[in-house]
Amino acid sequence: MSLIEFTPQGMYCPQAGMYIDPWQPVDKAIITHAHGDHARRGNKYYLAHVTSEHVLRLRLGEHINLQTIEYNVPIHINGVKISFHPAGHIVGSSQIRLEYQGEIWVASGDYKTEPDLLSQSFEPVRCHTFISESTFGLPVYQWKPQSEIFDEINQWWKDNQNADKVSIVFGYSLGKAQRILQNLDTSLGKIFVHGAIWHTNEALRQDGILLPEVIRVSKEIPNQTYRGGLVLAPPSAMATPWIRKFAPYATASASGWMTLRGAKRRKALDRGFVLSDHADWNGLNAAIEATGAQRVYVTHGYKSAFARYLTEKGLEAYEADTLFEGESLDPLPSLEENELQ
């Protein structure tokens, strides 16, 4: 029995009459998390986790028809038992469990298995069929403990202060920016944020997420004020006139793609920190094994290679075409970042 079909509109559960993270407007949408490739405008009804509420309203519109739900609290629609479970990707990110007539499927959305002290940690969900991302589904992608990465970031900030420079770190305005902020040594100096990050922080605070205080970058702040401080900005701000006000500065990107030789050079960055909100090779394999699933659908990322590897391990694995993007190496501007500067 198939509980999820891959259709032109998105992942569809015919028994419940609902789509998961649809990429075209539909009547009823279940949303795994608030990133733009999973939560799109135009749906008539949204179901999401409670800590995604204000970020979704910020990005999709204040008056969207949104119902929220807690983790591990099932609802029943047309005989389908639906529940949300922590994915560990960003605040509010969820795996969607569907149960119908004894069959259990789980759509994981995006996930990571290392706790980040901000989002609720990933919890494996036992199922017959698991839908997994594969953004970093190759053995080359193996993350160091995040504590080591943040020690490197804080030391880099100190070194830039000694050189009388501003430190600029690029990371997604939702998820990566808050994770970095939560782990910075705030005693080192002032922390400034791009407008897109500022608005996202304020939305998350409305959902009960505690974050350190920061200063929003503005035209009214004298350029000299930024000296020695750290600026958090989305990737879309790279190589734009916006960053000129911080000169002299050093730039860095926090991304899993910084694993690749040449990625830092390609973006003309001074430093690259390997930090991702997606599971690495070991995390993907551990998560799939913990589900006990014998059938796996592999979505965005290295899906061909990863599905082939899972097949060789004895699982029934398939590639699934979606419009999900995972973590992008290219600093493409998003709609919400353009609007919220």
TrEMBL record:
Keyword Nuclease appears in the UniProt entry: yes
Top-level lineage group: Bacteria
Keyword Ligase: yes
EC number, as in UniProt: 3.1.-.-
Keywords: Exonuclease, Hydrolase, Ligase, Nuclease
GO molecular function, one term: exonuclease activity
NCBIfam families, alphabetized: Xnuc_lig_assoc
PANTHER family from the UniProt entry: BLL1145 PROTEIN (PTHR11203:SF49), CLEAVAGE AND POLYADENYLATION SPECIFICITY FACTOR FAMILY MEMBER (PTHR11203)
Name listed for the protein in its UniProt record: Ligase-associated DNA damage response exonuclease
